[in-house]
Amino acid sequence: MPSAHYFPLELHASDDDQDCEEQEQLVDTDHRSSMLSNQYNLHYHPQLADYDNDNRTTELGMGMAPRLSRPGSSRRRYWLPMLIIASFCVIFYLMFSSQALGLGGSFNDGDDDFEPHSGQGKRWVPFPYQVSEFKFLTNEHKIENQNSSSSHALNESLHICSESHEDRRLYMQDKPHSAYAQLPVIYFVTPTYPRREQIPELTRLAHTLLHVPRIHWLVANDYERCDTYMDMLLNRFGIPFTHLSSPMPHKFRSTKPAPRGVANRRAALQWIRQHNLTNGVLYFGDDDNTYDLRLFSEIRQTQRVSMFPVGLIADYAVSGPVVRDGKVVAFLDSWVAGRRWPVDMAGFAVNLAYMSLYPNVNMPYKPGYEEDLFLRSIGLHIDQIEPRGMNCTEVLVWHTQTKSKKAPIVRLEKKFLDGRSNLGALFRSLKEMGVASVSDTEGPLATISKNGKGKAHSYFLS
Ligand code: UDP
Ligand code: MN
User: Fold this and answer.
1) Cα(224) to centroid of ligand 1, in Å?
2) Residues 416-443, mean pLDDT to the nearest whole number
3) Mean pLDDT value of segment 255-259
4) Which of 58, 139, 227, 364 is the least buried, fewest Cβ under 10 Å from its Cβ?
5) What is the pLDDT of residues 53-80, one digit of tens each?
6) Which residue has the higher pLDDT, 137 or 154?
7) Residue 426, pLDDT score
8) Residues 190 and 220 sit within 8 Å (Cβ to Cβ)
């Protein structure tokens, strides 16, 4: 994420985290994870926070009844802190209910020059059967489901458009397919969305992944339908893949900043859960990043969670762990904003056996905090992090960003777009890819030239 684009929400008092970390050092892993998940619920799920507070107030009320009968100063001593706690709860509730639902904030995303969900004339097929309701039973969903009749329902959907579990590549990095049979599989999750640059981005990424053995590419498209062009593209590479349709819930689309790629990553997590995958490594790899092939050998042996620097992030052009004596001790990132794990989505990998120990794994719709909250939901402790890339001295992944532009309409008479030249087929293909379209009447007139001179279309095409 371009972390610097977001303002800090000042979510949690750092003391809280500090306390929690100190306590964590005294408990075993299981106990630790349940503590963290409690803390997580309390901080990020206002409904649960309320519930906990109600209970706590009742308990306190009962326990303190005799004391409350005391006069004067001692009464003030107990009421004042309770009043402060209560007002904090109200403030937290107001902040989180709007932020978690993506309703609050007037942050500027700085990237609005295209219509991400226009479809741009792509060919699509309707789902052959009813879109499956997304049943991602995280705490968030349990709450959302309880409120499903209200406008708070997330209305997520996940549909498997096409998939192939067959690896049709014969050689990778000069070795036959069979040489890699024993390696754990990397589940490479790529959120993507329709815009002019989508097919070029995926093509470039595919040509990196073609060199990576034992990989399953989960391409989750932020689009309501199955894009048949994408099916064809993914099939052609011969890399095992799953093409999911996982549109961003409607209510988040117009929010600024929007939770980019969250619905897709959640759908991929759901797919992993549905397939009960407890072997292999999960990595979130956006469609526009640049991946060094060495990254894949580094993350493949992840035991719990591995981390490494990501280049071109925010103000320091890098984000990643600070490592001393082979251990992660802190983080370098120009946007801290209260995040316990101030890392980029591409800066970590997770072992699936480890992740399966945390049934409440979640990635909430909270722009800027997706990585932090995801890593909190799997009970991570700093001592457990495995630094990669020569103890985080190398950059093996870059947060490159592609300049986005609106798909143009080119004025070119349709009567000429038949078999007499290449242009008909070329523009049909560009339209399918969502790159450009033609019109008889709209857009700038296409210039067709020879020897440096433009001529009427009929001169070359009739
Ligand atoms: N993305 C998406 N839907 C959107 C915007 C983005 O699925 O509406 C995907 C995008 O293809 C990318 C990831 O989410 O893989 C992160 O988005 P982007 O690269 O635009 O964000 P940035 O890198 O600037 O954080
Ligand atoms: Mn990006």
Assistant:
1) 16
2) 97
3) 95
4) 58
5) 333 333 333 333 333 333 344 455 666 6
6) 154
7) 98
8) yes
Residue linked to tokens 């997304």: 134
Cβ–Cβ < 8 Å for 49, 42: yes
Residue nearest to ligand 1 atom 21, measured at CA: 1
Lining residues, ligand 1, CB within 6 Å: 1-2, 116, 191-193, 222, 248, 258, 260-261, 264, 286-288, 401
Nearest ligand 1 atom, CA 117: 8
Query: Over the stretch 112-123, which tens digit does the pLDDT of each residue have?
Result: 333 444 444 444
Nearest to 242 by CA among 270, 277, 268: 268
* Ligand 1 geometric centre to CA of 423 (Å): 32
Residue to substitute in 109, 193, 290, 363 for testing ligand 1 pocket (most ligand atoms within 8 angstroms of CB): 193
Nearest ligand for residue 194 CA: 1
Residue 155: Cβ within 10 Å count: 13
Neighbour tally for 188: CB within 10 Å: 26
Task: Cite the DSSP H helix spans in 344-420.
Answer: 352-355, 370-377, 389-392
- For 330: left if phi > 0, alpha if psi spans -120 to 50, otherwise beta; the answer is beta
Q: Which residues make beta-bridge pairs with 131?
A: none
> Could you give the domains of the chain?
15-97 (no CATH), 133-398 (3.90.550.10), 409-461 (no CATH)
Shortest-distance atom of ligand 1 to CA 287: 15
**106 class by beta-carbon count within 10 Å (0-12 exposed, 13-18 middle, 19+ buried):** exposed
State how far Cα 127 lies from the chain centre. 24
Residue 113 CA, chain-centre distance (Å), reads: 21
Q: What is the pLDDT of residue 427?
A: 98
